[in-house]
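Our platform keeps sequence and structure together, in a single record for each protein. This encoding replaces a full spatial description with a residue-level series of whole-number codes. We quote a single record here, exactly as it is kept in our systems:
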Amino acid sequence: MKIVNLELLLPEDIPEGERVLWYGRPDFISLARHAFRGDLVALYFGVMACWYFASGTYDAGLAAGAVDAARTLAVGMIAISLVAFLGWLSARTTLYVVTSKRLVLKVGIALPVFFNIPFTQIANASLRTYRDDSGDITFALTAGQRIAYLHLWPHARPFRFAKPEPAMRCVADGVRIARIVADALADAVPGEKTAPASTHAGSITPAAADARAPSGVLTAA
């Protein structure tokens, strides 16, 4: 990762006494698969290729079915390539910063936008992990705080339209980053009741979740 001058990227200079705890970008492959639904795109074209192969073979023979399937797969490869490029471009233009007092999201491909969210405006956070150990860390805002879903997407918890939740999507080593976030939130809000987090079902075993889940205010997604 290239060295980043955070003081130039944050909407204001980091105040004295505030520390940068972590910064990074989404993993672009994970982002393309999970945020831009690359897996579903691949599945769709795979199913369609099988369908066209079967129907073409039934109607005009094996060779015709193979040609129809090949054409469908070619279109599918183009679609998957576009999704992958969109994931790479989105990851490339995104920066997540966690300090000792706030969360900063720099997002936007064509027009970069900063979201500066003090920890005092975060009610709780949650973690969802994927099989590649990347994860989504989402943040529920306190009452009266709202950011439009379309302004955040894809850096938002999916399908939370009524009360959008900003998110650090598809960060590599999600459990470790979640631990940093949980500890930062706990330190920033003394006396806050905390509970250990669990990860998304199926990503890791329950025993591993107990051992690796971050402490603090994170809850299961």
Remarks:
- The beta strands are 20-24, 95-99, 102-107, 113-118, 122-129, 135-141, 167-171, 218-220.
- The longest helix spans residues 62-92.
- The two ends are 29 Å apart (CA to CA).
